[in-house]
Amino acid sequence: MKIRVGIVGYGNLGKGVENVISYNEDMELVGVFTRRDPSTIKTKTNIPAYTLEDAQNMKDDIDVMILCGGSAKDLPEQTPLFAKSFNVVDSFDTHANIPEHFKRVDDACRASNHVGIVSVGWDPGLFSLQRLYGEAILPQGNVQTFWGKGVSQGHSDAIRRVEGVKDARQYTIPIQETLDKVRSGNNSEFTAREKHLRECYVVVEDGADKKVIEETIKTMPNYFADYETIVHFISEEELQRDHQGLPHGGVVLHTANTGFDNEHKQVIEYKLDLDSNPEFTSSVLVAYARAAYRLANEKQFGCKSVFEVAPVYLHASSVEELRKKLL
Amino acid sequence: MKIRVGIVGYGNLGKGVENVISYNEDMELVGVFTRRDPSTIKTKTNIPAYTLEDAQNMKDDIDVMILCGGSAKDLPEQTPLFAKSFNVVDSFDTHANIPEHFKRVDDACRASNHVGIVSVGWDPGLFSLQRLYGEAILPQGNVQTFWGKGVSQGHSDAIRRVEGVKDARQYTIPIQETLDKVRSGNNSEFTAREKHLRECYVVVEDGADKKVIEETIKTMPNYFADYETIVHFISEEELQRDHQGLPHGGVVLHTANTGFDNEHKQVIEYKLDLDSNPEFTSSVLVAYARAAYRLANEKQFGCKSVFEVAPVYLHASSVEELRKKLL
């Protein structure tokens, strides 16, 4: 019997789950649950669409719900709510609020005997795992995370809120020179400006003052003021033609010295180079949906992060097979 | 109370454990157990040395034994034996024999209520974990492992067995061109010759026939015949001066495409660059010794591989702390 999966929210991430579930032969998609009118949704693979409320009548038809909404407004409400009726997986990524979100999902899961796995994806997610493995193995060392080159939705949105801006795309780019320094074992603390630069492609309204817009972007606190920021003004056609993808990626670098005289440098590097950020994040969510299903079968109820899930739960093969083939 | 650790075998790996345990404030070293006469052992940090037999009288003094012997002769015998009296961790690395070794350690652990974690290190070990996470997340993809640049002890030993050879050091070197192909998403099956080359530094006896030795090395089945092999003849002084280190490393590359039209390339790359192979392997062993101790406290007896150990068991901090700081 296949693991039956539901998708809550049909944006980029939900469509990603719909795509990547097809690579997993032990899983099948039951439906998409949406806040919109389901009759207006045409799914890519003709999976039926339902309202969020419909889900309550489908508790016996779905083994795991993958929540594909946003971390700002959707997930804080939806993940604990759906955890009352389903095993759930989400990609909640507001780092500072993870402990609080975890607690709420944990309470809901324990009260209803379900498994929740939250903050799944690549950061938080796979990058977090690398930070943990690195620190556990080389506790005397130093870990640095670099992001990009990739599109930051949050920074693109921030530019769109500037008066006179019609549309925008912001790329976060790691600074190669600093990456190389860390790679070669330099354990200094680098500033935001030393680690990343921000490149912005901006479409403006007719007659807008580009000078003012550029200045407003570059001095925006939190988002841009602490970085070297490059602003390009382009046409709507150029934005449509050259900047529709959602690539991303990054590097987690852990460096340390060992040896009785600290004479040996040890470098662990984990790098993602992703043409599609949402499709990769979806791939991680789907693997952890398998884990949630299995943990629920073992009655290991409650909320977990990627830290608490043994790797073997993610892979479709048996542990004996994995020890034989992949160890 | 600190986790009390014993070391079985005082070679490169045992000395590595002695070194890296000092970076782990929650652990302490009780002693080194050796086949040699303990009175002839002078440990680097003045840890006492004992005979292997002494260990039987120290069951209550040691929480985890780290077995630092070789995979050919020591570990198949020692790990199951010590598992009768202790929680054990080893770096058994003969891939083909792992299932059998696992079974023997598992039987010993279950009969005596201990935890064993076998085949811990970087390959098998951290590289295995990356292969598992990669395949679980992108099952439609392709994984390739490259080793080096680094010293292969097995290949160095094979050269030393050639008549007329006094000493030798063999470096395994990944072929950059193939690495770049895989990184760019080329999922072909590459041959041994396409993936690695073997560079040998050889010291010969006076009057030995270098031509015959070179030919013997290059045509040696399994070890060299399937590779491009470069042989350098050097003096004993040069070998002592330039080739005493034990660097190693490598790359696990997982590539896959996603998207309804397979239009998006996704690349996961995990890379190790190690000045000291034994000290890094020891670092991994020590982190898994912590895990073995904790699993034993939870009465999760039996043998495990890195696949079955949730990441959280490796790190000294509490899971709440880790979720807050590293997620």
Automatic annotation (TrEMBL), chains A, B:
Stretches assigned to the Meso-diaminopimelate D-dehydrogenase C-terminal domain: 121-276
EC number: 1.4.1.16
KW Transmembrane helix (keyword) present: no
UniProt cross-references to SUPFAM superfamilies, sorted A to Z: Glyceraldehyde-3-phosphate dehydrogenase-like, C-terminal domain, NAD(P)-binding Rossmann-fold domains
Transmembrane stretches, start-end: none
Entry's Gene Ontology molecular function annotations: diaminopimelate dehydrogenase activity
InterPro entries: Diaminopimelate_DH_Ddh, Meso-DAP_DH_C, NAD(P)-bd_dom_sf
Keywords, sorted A to Z: Amino-acid biosynthesis, Diaminopimelate biosynthesis, Lysine biosynthesis, NADP, Oxidoreductase
Pathway per the UniProt entry: Amino-acid biosynthesis; L-lysine biosynthesis via DAP pathway; DL-2,6-diaminopimelate from (S)-tetrahydrodipicolinate: step 1/1
Family affiliation: Belongs to the diaminopimelate dehydrogenase family.
Name of this protein: Meso-diaminopimelate D-dehydrogenase
